[in-house]
Amino acid sequence: MSKAQKQALSAVLIAILAAVMAVCAVRYFSPLTNLENKMADIRVAAMQKPMEASKDVVVVAINEDTLTAFPYRSPVDRGFLAELITQLSAKGAKVIGVDVIVDQPTEPEKDAQLKAVLDTTSTPLFMSYTSSPNIVNQDQLAFLNAFVRPDQRAEANLLSDPFDGLVRRINPGGEMQKGKLADTGAHPAGFVRKAVTLFGGKAPLTPTEIAWRPRPDAETQPFPSFPAQFVSVLPDEFFRDKIVLVGATLSITDRHRTPLSIIDDGDQGNMPGVFIQAHGISQILEGRAPPKMPFNGVVSLTVLFAALGVAVSLFKRGIVFNVGVGLVLVGSYWVGAVIGFGYGLPMVPLIGPSIAFALSIWMMDVFIGRAERKQREFVQGTFSRYVSPAVVDQLVKNPSSVGISGDRQEATFIFTDIAGFTTTSELLGAEELSDVLNEYLDGACEIILKYEGTIDKFIGDAIMAIFNAPIRQADHAERAVRCALELDAYAEAFRKDRNARDIPIGVTRIGIHTGQAVIGNFGSQSRMDFTALGDTVNTAARTEGVNKYFGTRVCCTEDAVERCPNMKFRQIGDIVLKGKTTPTGLYSPIAETDDPAMIQGYGAAYALLTSEGTGAEAAFRDLAVAFPEDPIVQFHVKRMDNGIISARVVMDDK
Questions:
Q1: Residue 321 Cα to chain centre, angstroms
Q2: 282 and 297 share a domain?
Q3: Closest Cα partner for 463 from 434, 433, 437, 492?
Q4: Are residues 331 and 428 in the same domain?
Q5: Is 631 a domain residue?
Q6: Beta strand 255-257 pairing with 569-576
Q7: ∠ at Cα 403 (400, 404), nearest 5°?
Q8: 643 domain-assigned
Q9: What is the mean pLDDT of residues 217-230?
């Protein structure tokens, strides 16, 4: 590598490191996190353009005047609540949400009246609910559970920022079960998600930044609001086909600080909980995106400013020049970000990019112009991404093993590929596709390195790995098979998790083959690639591909199986691969999770098939009934349906 290339690489690494440090500093160092939040709060509170009042969400306020009609302030009169719900239902409300927690008895007749209304009202409705011990004790929780049906419960708790206590995000409610959000009686859907769902919409399943709805003008609330005591005399059209939220707007109860508090100490900055819920509901119904830029965008902007800092330093004009240009660039960015937000620009981060810019300038001054790396450092930098640390240590001790040459030797190859990934790439956006693929490859590579395999290359979503090179391994075939089984378990768990999030990832197919190949570095001193060449590599690749034909996920050739005396397999058949004339025995490794009864039954049935015994068909059909989801059994039964009773399979394609 030339000196110019090394300097370019150093500059790239410095930019990345500065960006990572800046992102982590703002994300995990609370004073900086707080400062970034406050800069965002200023824009939310002061720079948003007015917006007309919501047409879908109405608030019915239980205010101080409402309470004067009751003999006691708390709990809210149950008879009044029952009549209010009945009136709203009669006026055509599409959904009724009551932000009142019914956690203790009052007058028995009124309690019974409200309970009857909850059980009989035809309009979809829900009540605020919490099981938090900080809010309700065991007796209160028992009363609440008995009073409000599980299907009418909505999580009332708001998500307060741990750094400053402000409410900035929507609480989706529910609880995680087996990696998926589930709504239960004790942990129901959040207030916002419940309202949106009953209204016929779809709400996010993760905490989402609230896009606060600005006032139409200084005197008007973002949501139509009517005193609860006047509902009976108000026109029906005020409530018809709307989400009607009933909640307290008292001056000292159920108040929460919001980002608007930075310029408003009144109802906006110290907002009643029912209005916070209204902001979240209208945001989801109208499809308004959260104001803050997604994390990927934050990282990209931070990297950009780190790169700008590197670029400024490359002029080598001295510290005065760097500081002067930096102040102009960062200052212009801050002014543009604040003003631009009022004109529809995203809520771009301010603190992180500024830190990244300053860090990259400082780091360039420290690292630029360093001497070329020695051969040992080259080996470490080159191979540490592809082989395990133990292998790197051996290579460092013997740098000559990475010379430009190729040797014929036996090795075991693994090929993996995600089924239908082309379709997946067309359905996902570029950033989401990149994130999913990188996360998948990170986990897969970690497993390969665990078994001290060498990651030869990535071909899109596919991985090629080599065992027994560059460091010799007496048990290379067994390492590869065990690695494949762990890769299969990881890939299946990854697929199911992403499918549950509506990310269409297919199954991972894995092929394993052992044979002779020419392995080494091919190229020149300036650019080389450590890889393998030969027909063995092609056979390994085709072994991965035939999984599609059999419905399997892991497939091994007989050459690999013969070198794994400590492992168990079941034979799929004698397969004549595309382009071959002689059959290759293909096997599926037996995992610990496989049913012993199925394995034993399959072995007996396959023995009949290879001996062309008359009972083979009956044995396989019995297996198909007992184990209908086993792909290899189904493969043979399908062939038998077509009149083919043989273990020899000729492939028509790869």
A1: 43
A2: no
A3: 437
A4: no
A5: no
A6: unpaired
A7: 165
A8: no
A9: 90
363 and 411 together in one domain:
no
pLDDT in tens, 371-413: 333 445 555 555 555 555 655 666 656 655 554 457 889 999 9
Q: For residue 650, report the phi and psi dihedrals to the nearest 5 degrees.
A: -100, 120
- The pLDDT score that the predictor gives to residue 654 is 57
**Cα separation of 654 and 651, whole Å?**
7
Give the CATH number for residue 431. Answer: 3.30.70.1230
Residues 242, 310, single domain; the answer is no
Asked if 101 and 130 count as a contact pair (C-beta separation under 8 A), the reply is yes
**Where is the domain boundary, 286, 312, 346?**
286
- Residue 628 falls inside a structural domain: no
387 CB neighbour count, 10 Å cutoff = 24
User: Strand order of the sheet with strand 208-209?
Assistant: 159-160, 167-170, 208-209
Q: Three-class SS of residue 24?
A: helix
Residues 264, 336 within the same domain? no
Helix, strand and coil content of the chain, in percent to the nearest 5, comes to 50, 20, 35
Asked, as a colleague might, if the bond just before 349 is cis with ω within 30 of 0, I would say no
> 410-442 pLDDT, tens per residue?
999 999 999 988 888 888 888 898 899 999 999
Q: How large is the average pLDDT for residues 586-609?
A: 92
**Is 638 inside any structural domain?**
no
Cα–Cα dist 181/174, whole Å = 6
Dihedral sign, Cα of residue 219, residue 224, residue 227, residue 229? positive
SS3 for 330-386, per residue? HHHHHHHHHHHHCCCCCECCCHHHHHHHHHHHHHHHHHCCCCCCCHHHHHHHHHCCC
pLDDT of residue 404: 47
Out of 367, 393, 421, a domain closes at 367
In this structure, are 94 and 188 located in the same domain? yes
Do residues 167 and 258 touch, judged by C-beta distance below 8 A? yes
- Domain total of the chain: 3
Supply 274's token pair: 């029912």
CB 268 within 8 A of CB 257: no
Six-digit token pair at 169? 């995000």
| CA nearest to 412, candidates 506, 515, 303 | 515
Q: Do 342 and 276 reside in the same domain of the chain?
A: no
Q: What is the largest CA-CA distance in the chain?
A: 95
Are 155 and 187 in contact by the 8 Å Cβ rule? The answer is yes
Residues 259 and 298 in one domain: no
pLDDT-derived band at 613, boundaries 50, 70, 90? low
- Please name the amino acid found at residue 554: V
For 516, the domain range is: 403-594
Measure the CA–CA gap between 471 and 84, rounded to whole angstroms. 78
